[in-house]
Amino acid sequence: MASLGELSAGVAHEINNPLAIILTERQILLDLLEQTMNLDEGFKKELTESLNQMDVQINRCKRITHNLLRFSRRTRSVIEKVDLNSFLEEVVELMEREARSSGIRFQTELDENLKPVLSDPSQLQQVFLNLITNAIDAHDGKPYGTVRISTQADDEHQKAHIVFADTGCGIPREILDKIFDPFFTTKAVGKGTGLGLSICYSIMQRLGGSISVKSQVGEGTEFTVTIPYQPSAQVQEGVTATARG
C-alpha cells in the first residue's frame, strides 16, 4: 500500500503539469477567438463548444489526480477523523469509470446525520475499494447492474453502518460462511487470490469494527461494514504500532 501510494503521488504530479499547460493554451485560444474578426459564426460556435469541453475534461482529470493524491496520503496507518459520506463519494468517483465500462451504475444513500468516525482512512479505503470491486465483478456475464452504497448512523450503539449491495449473481448458501477464509474464492482461476475478503475481515477486526454478509443466488449480495465512532485505546495503540513497523 505504501509503494502504491508513492506511485499514485508521482503519477498525479506528472499528470498535473501537462494539464496546467493545456489549460493555459486553451485560454490563449479562447482569447484569440474573441479578438479574431470576420469568423464564420457556425465555426466560432463549434470551436467555443470544443474548448469548453476541453475545460470539462481537464477538470475531470484534475479531480482524478486530486483523488490519487488523497489516496497516497492515506497509505500511512494513522487514526484520524473521517467523514464517511465524503470519503465514500471519493472512492465511488475513483471507481466510476471501471463501473461504467461494465454497465454498472452506482447509487448512494448517505445518512446526513452520520457523525465523523475516528479510524484509519488508509485501511478503510482498502476495505471499501475491495468490496466495490467485488460488487462490480459479481455482475460478470450480466449486461448491466447496480451497486448501492448506503450509510446509517447508530447513535445508540455509537457506530456507523455502511452497506454495499449489488444486483450480481449472488453467493450459494453452502459456501457463504467460507468467503472470509484466506484463499477461498468463487472467481475463475487467475481472476482472484481469495485474499481480498479475508484481508477486509482482518482490517475491520483490527479497527474494532466488523463485516457481515447476506446473499441470495440470482438476486445479489449485501455486505455490511460496522465502524465504531471512536475505537478503543487498545485499537489506537495497535494501529500506531503498525505504522511504526
Can you offer a commentary on this structure?
The protein contains six helices and seven strands. The longest helix is centred in the N-terminal third of the chain and has 34 residues, at 2-35. The model is unreliable at 188-194 (pLDDT under 50). Helix 4 runs antiparallel to helix 5. It has two domains: 2-73; 93-244, Heat Shock Protein 90 (2-Layer Sandwich). A hairpin with a 4-residue loop joins strand 4 and strand 5. By secondary structure, the chain is an alpha+beta fold. The strands form two sheets. The chain has a five-stranded mixed sheet with strand order 2-4-5-7-6, with helices on one face. A two-stranded antiparallel ribbon has the order 1-3.
SSE layout and pairing:
Layout (H helix, E strand, L loop, with lengths): L1 H34 L5 H33 L6 E3 L1 H18 L2 E6 L7 E3 L1 H17 L7 E10 L4 E8 L29 H11 L3 E7 L3 E9 L4 H12 L1
Parallel strand pairs: 2-4
Antiparallel strand pairs: 1-3, 4-5, 5-7, 6-7
Helix pairs in contact: 1-2, 3-4, 4-5
